[in-house]
From TrEMBL, chain A:
Protein name: Butirosin biosynthesis protein H-like
UniProt cross-references to InterPro entries, sorted A to Z: BtrH_N (IPR026935), DUF4872 (IPR032369)
Residues covered by the DUF4872 domain: 152-322
Butirosin biosynthesis protein H N-terminal domain ranges (all copies): 10-141
Superkingdom per UniProt: Bacteria
TrEMBL record, chain B:
Organism: Thiopseudomonas denitrificans
Name listed for the protein in its UniProt record: Uncharacterized protein
Amino acid sequence: MTFNHQQSAHCETGVMSSLLTHAGLPMSEPMAFGLASGLAFAYLPLVKLGGMPLIAYRMPPKHIIKTLSKRLGCRLHVQTFGNEAQGRAALDRALDEGRLVGMQSSVFWLPYFPPEMRFHFNAHNLLAYGREGDEYLLSDPVFEQPVRCAADDLQRARFAKGALAPKGLLYWLDDVPQEQDWPALVRKSILGTTRILDGLPLPWIGVRGIRHLAGKIGKLDAQGHKYNRLYLTHIVRMQEEIGTGGAGFRFMYASFLQEAGRLIGDERLCELSTRLTATGDQWRQFASLCVQHGRSKQNPPPLSQLSDSLLQIADSEQQLVAGLKGWLKD
Amino acid sequence: MKLDEVPQDADGSKYGGHQKLLYAVDDKGEYHEAQSAGWEAENYATDLALQELEQQAQQARADWQAGATSVLPYLMYRYRMDELALAQCTGLWRWRIRRHFRPAVFAALPQKILLRYAQAFSLPLEQLTACQQGYRDDL
């Protein structure tokens, strides 16, 4: 199979971009992200990661795969396995048939990940494009080059237990239509994003979620430096470390708005993109502030400054959503 | 973020020598992909989390070797888990796992339960059996 590996910022969008491009519908990573309405913000205190609340800057795992396939009218083949040996056999069969196969796996058990990056996260996505002896040829979207992985190691990663267990999930796309109604797709996806960011009556989601987090930071006990430091750097890790393309997917979505604006010939989307880039820069500054707070024992930036900075971000995102809604009305 | 602002803080980077992809704009505001060798703020955040896990693992190792706890807390932290994650991986309740942290309870665990732990850590069952029988050198 001739397959071109392409590095991406994020695993799920990277896999979709590669699958679609390989099937003859060239699609950049930001377009895959935007058209699937992937952008979000969520503060989920009940879902714990290492004792900390889950803070997400995008929709939950598998949302992008499912939504994008549906909107583009592709047939998405998915399969999970109760029996691990069957899961392996199914992967081999699909590869023998010459398919490019998407898989869900754990990050922790993939040996080609550097030790510093190996945490228990079970919703990683990657592609297999071949097999040589006892090794699989993999295209892991967040890496610069294709990688190889021993069969037993891949098997362990595909059948890791725990939260979001992959259960050997395999997926691929059939019947990818080459003709698309781009203006309608862009509209529909942007409408979805405005609803998620500012339209749900829940205090933890979207712009309200950002304000909620600002409130949480404002209420941290200034004496508990050790906990505060872990809490604030946890936010930074959720925002930057876990492959977001910078600023918790804000730059990636801004890139989508620009590309979509060019594609359908609408300059106003490009202007909105510029505004979102500025919001992304605010997010990066907020991350720097969090780290400064953790670092300096003597004179850390006050928690109120961090929480004010988040409130400003919430305002900018609300204005952006208003701009997008205005664009949808015309 | 402008292309020339894309951080290249390779010193102390937690990407293991790899580069990460970011999206940034050029002088005309056009978006491009850009590789980053590391960002100092992010490095600090990752490093802090890793240090925390490392400290917990070292403490748990000392407790195990002193006979104060079973080997399980040490393995749990060494494999970058916490009680919740270990409970999810083994399918055991948290209170049972906490009970298994007691050396006497651990020593009496049946093979069936031990196997669940062995699978969660991807270790041979014999190593855990050896620990049950008093093995205290490193794993």
